[in-house]
Amino acid sequence: MIEPINLHADRFFSSDIIQRDIARKLYNKIKDFPIVSPHGHTDPKWFAENECFSNATELLIQPDHYLVRMLYSQGISMSALGFGKDCEEKELDHKKIWQIFADNYFLFLGTPTRTWLDYVFVNVFNMSEMLCAENAGNYYDTITACLQQPEFKPRALFERFNIEVIATTESPLDDLKYHQKIVDSGWSGKVITAFRPDNVVDPEFEGFEENLQRLSVITKTNIDTFEGYLKSLQVSREKFKALGATSTDHGHPTARTLDLSNDEKTALYLQIRSQKFTSQQADDFRAQMLTEMATMSLEDGLVMQIHPGVYRNHNDFLFAHYGRDKGADIPVQSEYVANLHALLNKYGNDSRFELIVFTLDETSYSRELAPLAGHYPALKLGPAWWFNDSPEGMRRYRQQVTETAGFYNTVGFNDDTRAFLSIPARHDVARRMDCAFLAEMVSDHRLTESQAEKIAVDLTYTLVKKAYHL
Amino acid sequence: MIEPINLHADRFFSSDIIQRDIARKLYNKIKDFPIVSPHGHTDPKWFAENECFSNATELLIQPDHYLVRMLYSQGISMSALGFGKDCEEKELDHKKIWQIFADNYFLFLGTPTRTWLDYVFVNVFNMSEMLCAENAGNYYDTITACLQQPEFKPRALFERFNIEVIATTESPLDDLKYHQKIVDSGWSGKVITAFRPDNVVDPEFEGFEENLQRLSVITKTNIDTFEGYLKSLQVSREKFKALGATSTDHGHPTARTLDLSNDEKTALYLQIRSQKFTSQQADDFRAQMLTEMATMSLEDGLVMQIHPGVYRNHNDFLFAHYGRDKGADIPVQSEYVANLHALLNKYGNDSRFELIVFTLDETSYSRELAPLAGHYPALKLGPAWWFNDSPEGMRRYRQQVTETAGFYNTVGFNDDTRAFLSIPARHDVARRMDCAFLAEMVSDHRLTESQAEKIAVDLTYTLVKKAYHL
Amino acid sequence: MIEPINLHADRFFSSDIIQRDIARKLYNKIKDFPIVSPHGHTDPKWFAENECFSNATELLIQPDHYLVRMLYSQGISMSALGFGKDCEEKELDHKKIWQIFADNYFLFLGTPTRTWLDYVFVNVFNMSEMLCAENAGNYYDTITACLQQPEFKPRALFERFNIEVIATTESPLDDLKYHQKIVDSGWSGKVITAFRPDNVVDPEFEGFEENLQRLSVITKTNIDTFEGYLKSLQVSREKFKALGATSTDHGHPTARTLDLSNDEKTALYLQIRSQKFTSQQADDFRAQMLTEMATMSLEDGLVMQIHPGVYRNHNDFLFAHYGRDKGADIPVQSEYVANLHALLNKYGNDSRFELIVFTLDETSYSRELAPLAGHYPALKLGPAWWFNDSPEGMRRYRQQVTETAGFYNTVGFNDDTRAFLSIPARHDVARRMDCAFLAEMVSDHRLTESQAEKIAVDLTYTLVKKAYHL
After folding, report:
1. Considering CB atoms only, which of C16, C374, C408 is closest to B69?
2. C17-51+154-467 belongs to which CATH class?
């Protein structure tokens, strides 16, 4: 028996009538605001070349590590999902892969992945039946056929999604040609880049030394000295700024920062370049480089983001055979108070500098991050991230952060995704959860309705644009 | 003024009428499913010999460390509760001990202990007045008289409780004679054992070396070499399997695992057997033995359970005078991502292997365990355990686990108890809390009612049987 | 548009009508109980000299680090708030500072600071308009004028606030002259001291060696030996007791305790006095001194409080220029199980001794502190503290503590504040949140209404007086 898709107008709002009615009113005030997406991982090539997406499986399943990980956790092999080198017996029939996904769609009950997908099915592809084993083939065909239509090309969807601006993420080794092409095309859509230098500031990154050589070539800067190396990064940042970047992003194992003397920095750099360094020295270098990036941010005005606390590629077998971003990144405990001390003491009191910190360790919300963000002028707190980009995760975030940091030391929502079609769905969940949280505060008289309305608008739009200098 | 016992039909359901009505409907679908109890500590002797339980105090108070700890925390001495060596002035009058308990029953307000006991009073002993100082004597007499009746014997209660299968826990040094006797008796009740080898794999366990000698004798295996030692454990596991065991259980201080080379393992074993080893070597041995147990599980199909993270016998005085399991075990912070890396990298991708992990550190739910269980095919997440086997503990578990691991990487409920009479009460709380959680998800349109119904049945019955190979 | 202040009679109660009505009833039973404030930081000079408070800014803004930190976090400089040495360009016009505060009052939406202030504006100063930029001047003038009236003097407010007893906090170096003056004055208000010896037991405290010299002089005791040093502390404690103290308070970096041998203690003391000690030795000394304080508590009956887990003065610049208590203290992760082991093993089983432990690390509630408090007779758990002294913080506290420790191993509310006027507001929030929590437990049938009523009274009044020997 096929059921209709469950996308109720009041979804995520409390069933308490008082709260629900307030949430509805708040949501109606903000639901039509344009999407501001200051941090994400969509591919600029899509918007530069504006070609049709291929099919339902290649667009919606294979690139989505949230989705792949859950199927894999229940014993579905990577090859059955179409991954693997050519010599293996991987599934090549995309429709069969879609059928496997549909057969197992029940696994996603209660997860945000299902919420986002149902939203896409209804609002992008106009489906009305809930996806299941029986209608999988029809689903695949319908979506794939849609994708061949002009109104489903990247730029058309961008406009339909009411995106005011979206940031992608590139490394200093990227030539930014797609961003240049977008600019040159005269298209009105605003797609900007963001500067993510992990591969040239983390000595333990794969191919680090080769990356530095490439950086030197690209920036036409001699990097034999630490000064030269810093200069090359400055040159690269300028190039990013010229293509719209307003922020940098740093995905380090920890939030550790250091503020070494010039002599120490120089010595450490030469040690790292000698390619004979300890794991501790690599960590020191990463820690020092966060502070260097902050120094540059004060100069060039790029907002700095730190995303720490993930054990990348925990599954050695999976990484060896199928590579990165297949769902085997696992959060670990994170410390912010001692780790950010060096950086915050150097620049935390300067309100021209702006640092946005994220966490996957929710224990740091009330204990460390809200107290830090509620004190340092330079520090703001990023939204609930990755595994916590979910209704319950967002609720816990507001519950644990607001009383100490208020609403105004936070920066609105990040979708942080490469799943382009899910972007409106993700922003919609965030808006609904903010309204649900505010509605509860109004319902027990911690806020008035007019205060909540103002805050809802600020969380959805004003704070994002301000925090990211957009 | 004596009040009636408060065992409302809607207990633990939200007072929100929409949620309450959904919860009621869900609960009515699952409340009569038989109890599947895959992990617990009841005494097989009860079911083998089927003798009457003695009296209210010896059955309900003294063996229950949840209960003893709370009374003790408020200054009631162990001797007043009937504990201690004979030379001491311990209370021998069970009725007086029951009176002390009744006088202090208010201490348990708001705790699951009181919920379970009230359920037992009503549903097993047909009491209707709330226990208090005034009716304590009558309570004691009524319960104790009941216990002399045939319908209150262990097997009769087992049947009345609608238990489909229950697992006890024994060590490799146990002769399993009671399990054998149950099988031989022809009784239809299914009581199986589970293999818990802590006393022969943890070098710091009391009497470890003697335990190994006994293991060697019992399994008729020479354990001078590491191979021989492993062989003896395999032999023992086979004996457990023959008496119905489908699982092993490992109560280690941490979840740390290692995967050493053969030479390292052999050397470490000899070091341990020399009885001159460091605390670090003992920890390495425990860590390696978890991996060895996983190897054996792949061969013999026993499901593996790890219960880490408890500081056992924190109170030296209490331990010295009154022994283990008196309420002085305290949870500590636990780490899973680095600790499980060796084991999961060896076997985590093999869906023939099944590892169920528990935690007392709730901070690991959303940060570590849900992400791990939502990725590795071999890993499932055990239910809210021990101190968290409670309404709020269960709610937090589902709220923090579901969005990343879904429902289908969890394994249903464990009562984990030696308090036999409380088993239906504990399963009832778990069923109610699952229904309350699902009802909230239906009420804010994250699930449909038919989805929630299916999940409720799976959490109560299907997933347990599947996870534990029952 | 100026709005009225939002101080609804049902604030903090659930909008669910069933819960709200129960909460109302419970609150009506307890709202008029006198305030018992066993732990705080008001200035005894106020009550001794009973002079008028100066003006709105000096009374309500500048001493309140909750308030200053939030303004500072949004880029408002310390000098604009009137802080700094005279040479700087600090704002001297208190009315202008009040205007800045009013302009930024929206920053406090959703925080307890705003709740407390609105309560003070309405209930102490009879304001009805919500503070905003437009009415800031009038607000300042009205409050400042009030403060010149006799009915706004400290003793009058004390009586109006219905305070039964309040404890301040002094160090052994304090001459307690204001406390003596209060006693001598014959005023009926009960203001007692509490013994906080951090500055003479922490070798890393600023001026530690000089502090010891002063302690020796004040107590007329030779402190060249460890015995002498302990004797001087005993003498000091007696002096505090004579002025009403019933408790000691210890603000250590961690909860670590040690129980060294006499030889070790003596050697450690001499090392510390030599002023050549390592950071580890300083930590050992602090840890040992907690145990020594416990020994003295057993003798003199003072209740012992430990407040660990804060990184003090995280912002070096702020500390150097503006000193302590300006909002730059940040909580850190805290461990209690291993750290309290030495102390609890020595005295934890002795119910004549009473230790109240606090935390800023909420992860320890369910994992460590509730299990410890639910076992050791000597241990009680302090209320949600500092950053967690907030509606959500209190809710999390009860949700995570109650099921394991019950209500009766907690000690009621502490306001812990130097903001005298906010004391009734803070107690009111605590009473409301306890009632809201209890109402939920009644609404889902975990408690009866009469049980909840009894507990509400105990949490508000009975348990506080008992725990603090008042």
Report:
1. C374
2. alpha beta
Q: What is the C-alpha separation between B412 and A91, in angstroms, rounded?
A: 33
Q: What is the pLDDT of residue C351?
A: 87
Q: Which residues of C fall within a CB distance of 8 Å from A445?
A: 6-8, 10-12
Q: Is the predicted pLDDT of residue C67 greater than 90, yes or no?
A: yes
**CATH topology classification for A17-52+153-467:** TIM Barrel (3.20.20)
Smallest CA–CA distance, residue B210 to chain C, in Å, is: 30
What burial class does residue C164 get, using C-beta atoms within 10 Å of its C-beta: 0-12 exposed, 13-18 middle, 19+ buried? middle
Instruction: Note which residues in 288-347 of chain C have CB less than 8 A from chain B.
Output: 335, 337-338, 341, 344-345
Confidence of residue C86 (pLDDT cuts 50, 70, 90): low
Backbone torsions φ then ψ of C40, nearest 5 degrees: -165, -175
Sort out which chain A residues have CB atoms less than 8 A from B444's CB and list them: 10-15
Interface residue of B368, B375, B408, B454 to substitute, partner A, most A CBs within 10 Å = B375
List beta partners, residue B289: none
Structure token pair of residue A239: 């190039």
Q: Which CATH architecture has domain B17-51+161-467?
A: Alpha-Beta Barrel (3.20)
pLDDT digits (tens, 9 = 90+) for B96-134: 999 999 999 999 999 999 999 999 999 999 999 999 999
- The answer for residues whose C-beta is within 8 angstroms of residue C185's C-beta and 6 or more apart is C48
- Tens digit of pLDDT for each residue in A285-333? 999 999 999 999 999 999 999 999 999 999 999 999 999 889 999 999 9
Instruction: Say what the ipTM of the complex is.
Output: 0.97
Residue entry with tokens 């088993």: B423
Tell which B residues from 74 to 93 touch C, by Cβ distance under 8 Å.
Answer: 74-75
Q: Where are the beta strands (DSSP E) in C338-447?
A: 355-357, 379-381
What residue spans in chain B does CATH classification 3.20.20.140 cover?
A: 17-51+161-467
Which positions ≥6 away from A11 have C-beta within 8 Å? A115, A432, B444, B445, B446
Say if CB C20 and CB C10 are below 8 A apart: yes
Residues from chain C contacting residue B16 (CB–CB below 8 Å): 16
Q: Return the CATH class of domain C52-152.
A: mainly alpha
Q: Chain C 17-36, CB below 8 Å of chain B: which residues?
A: 18-19
Interface of B with C in 379-398 (CB under 8 A): 387-388, 390-393, 396
Sequence ranges of chain A with CATH classification 3.20.20.140: 17-52+153-467
